[in-house]
Amino acid sequence: MELESPAWLDACYVQKVLRKAxxxxxxxxxxxxVRPATAKGDNYMSDMYRIAVEFSRGQGDQxxxxxxxLILKLxxxxxxxxxxxxxTGFFAVELSMMSDTLPRISxxxxxxxxTKLSARCLYVQYEKPTHVFLDDLAPAGFRMAVRQExxxxxxxxxxxxxxxxxxxxxxxxxxxxxxxxxxxxxGMLHKDNPAxxxxxxxxxxxxxxxxxxxWPELNPRIPEKLLKLSEYTYEKGCEAALVxxxxxxxxxxxxxxxxxxxxxxxxxxxxxxxxxxxxQISHRGSPAEDLLYFLGTSPSDDIRxxxxxxxxxxxxxxxxxxxxxxxxxxxxxxxxxxxxxxxxRAFFEVIASSVVLPIVVLEKGNNVDISKISGADGKYDNPAxxxxxxxxxMSRILPLYDSMGLLDI
Length: 409
Hints:
The protein is α+β, with helices and mostly antiparallel strands.
């Protein structure tokens, strides 16, 4: 069933938003056209609409006609997702990030970088209906990469370069305002998240265990370990994400995978700009979280195996050079120290590849019902684990995880 446009979303409401965003009371909206902004199955934690707006504004004695495209992100109205997002506070996190924190970090970075972190936030409303209006990035040439293919080297290097920039900016921001990041303390893996979250992660690992038992190319001890691990998956994930006082910490994007970034391309279709989208799970923590989540979900399989160190060095160079330019007081971790951070939290990548990656590479036309994954009985038959691409990737990577001891309880 196609996403229905909210009844309150009309030309009058959009006019109010634009007048406030542009500080221009002369704006008059004549027409709007609303349609879903994402394909079914590509967005799980908000309802998104693309709004084509026709309007005019006064300039001297004349009125100029203009067109503009906006994105509306709305707190889901179905009972399950609305309750989950209210209990975790994730949707409120995005409103705070878009309206306050990201503009402030962007201002810090603007002293030496023209790179944009996110779309411009035009309007937020915390009370029901909870929503945020953003500028649409598509007219500027930004688009999503094809998630099923995995990102090639050019895409990966650009994404990790910008991740280093964002993380460094967050360090400088935290030094300027030590209390500013305190509100962002709960990520995807946190002991205070609703019980359904734990059920979902454990159920996913159980699905992987049961499906991988049918793969003759895999040593049978691995599915056996996965089945035992499925009872403790979320608990071990929370341990991997735990913030310790002596940690080097940044503001993590929190959901840094291929569908939460957009790229702009040159005439040869080589990516030249990258921008972040979806900041609902942003939180203070080790940069290892964003890095391991990205590595476990987004590069093509060959790049994941063959170019891991090069990708991490690109990130580290960006982080270190940006922190130096911003004159951060916090000591920049060495590359060896970064590698140690990743080693200590390596189970985070196991989580990413076992829970998120199957959805990333799921063939078009198939969808996953997250409300059923989180069901109390934990018996959802998840089609994502039967995908050929996922089997090919995991048959290669599970033995590596096993050799590192990551599948042991």
